[in-house]
Automatic annotation (TrEMBL):
It comes from Glycine soja. InterPro entries: BC10-like, Glyco_trans_14. The keyword Oxidoreductase does not apply. It is a single-pass type II membrane protein. Residues 1-32 form the signal peptide. Pfam families: Branch. It is found in: Membrane. GO terms for cellular component: membrane. Keywords: Glycoprotein, Glycosyltransferase, Membrane, Signal, Transferase. It comes from the Eukaryota. Its main location: membrane. One of its GO terms (molecular function) is glycosyltransferase activity. This is Glycosyltransferase.
């Protein structure tokens, strides 16, 4: 008869190949500093005084230089009372050599949040967005809307117009602007990217949604995101297929659709051109395409209630022609 210690050792030895095979798919624990940040942001805290001017928290998620910072500088300076209307937060991939804009409103009002490396088609982009939301929640109780943007985004209106649209438009009081889609042709392939039954039981296929990576959330929904653990543990699972695995386009619309569908417009305010694209990247606008007519087209919407406030994706070479039409077109309503 084999002794118990020997039997245990033999079992462990025989299990080693299986563990090595499964190791890439084993969920690693989240970093303790992230958990601490999210718990602090999700905890009840003092709300702002009702008579104070509410602010927009602009959350820049970037892995390269903020090429369009001069254009955003004009945007943030385009209102006489700009200092009361916004805050800026930047999550920059620490593995990249990134230079930040110097001088002006953009430089002095920007806050760098604790950042970690990010990679396309991985949960790291969700983590980065959650860090931005948590930092902005903790930083200023007057932050009532949270706009997630990339280094390729540009504004399509002035700061005052953007602020008025979000806070003074009676057609969408206290709603989040996030694309929520349930009828995409490859929806099931996206759902099973982590394995056929990996999302169950927390996320049945009937509840799975997709949408744009960039959004504008209310303070209530920002807290919903940083408070979530149950769905986050599912969407943190590594994909077993490379395509179509875009966790950042799945997690936020699914979570908010399950938690508060009536509190979401289902519409994104960031215009993206997907015409003719097949590799997961939208159309990249180049300098010859920039014109007053392009700006007017990008603003237009098929919705009677919503219009576009931002647009992407623009190549760095677009900065000069955009600056040339900024005052007379982009920031003139």
């Amino acid at each position: 008869m084999v002794s118990s210690p020997l039997l245990v050792s033999l079992t462990l030895f025989l299990s080693l190949p299986l563990l090595l095979f499964l190791s890439p798919h084993i969920l690693s624990p989240p970093d303790a500093d992230d958990l601490t940040l999210f718990r602090r942001a999700a905890a009840p805290h003092t709300t702002s005084h009702l008579s104070a001017t509410p602010k927009i928290a602009f959350l820049f998620l970037t892995n390269s230089n903020l090429t369009f910072s001069p254009l955003w500088e004009k945007f943030f300076s385009s209102s006489d009372h700009h200092h009361r209307l916004f805050n800026i937060y930047i999550h920059a991939d620490p593995t990249q050599n990134i230079a930040f804009p110097g001088g002006g409103v953009f430089h002095h009002r920007s806050r760098l949040v604790p950042a970690k490396p990010t990679a396309r088609a991985s949960p790291s982009l969700i983590s980065a967005a959650r860090r931005l939301l948590a930092a902005a929640l903790l930083d200023d109780p007057l932050n009532h809307y949270f706009a997630l943007l990339s280094q390729h985004c540009i504004p399509l209106h002035s700061l005052q117009f953007t602020h008025n649209f979000l806070f003074k438009n009676p057609t969408h009081p206290h709603k989040s602007f996030i694309e929520i889609l349930s009828n995409e042709p490859n929806l099931f392939d996206r759902y099973t990217a982590r394995g056929e039954h990996a999302m169950l039981p927390e996320v049945p296929f009937s509840s799975f949604r997709v949408g744009s990576q960039f959004f504008i959330l209310t303070r209530r929904h920002a807290r919903t995101v940083v408070r979530d653990i149950k769905l986050w543990n599912k969407f943190r699972l590594p994909c077993v297929t490379e395509e179509p695995c875009y966790p950042e386009e799945h997690y936020f619309p699914t979570l908010l659709s399950m938690q508060d569908p009536n509190g979401c417009s289902g519409f994104t305010l960031t215009r993206v051109n997907w015409t003719g694209c097949w590799d997961g990247h939208p159309h990249l606008y180049t300098a010859p395409e920039v014109s007053p007519e392009l700006v007017r087209r990008l603003r237009e919407s098929n919705s009677s209630s919503y219009l576009y406030l931002f647009a992407r994706k623009f190549a760095p070479e677009c900065l000069r022609p955009l600056m040339e039409i900024a005052d007379d077109v982009i920031f003139r309503e």
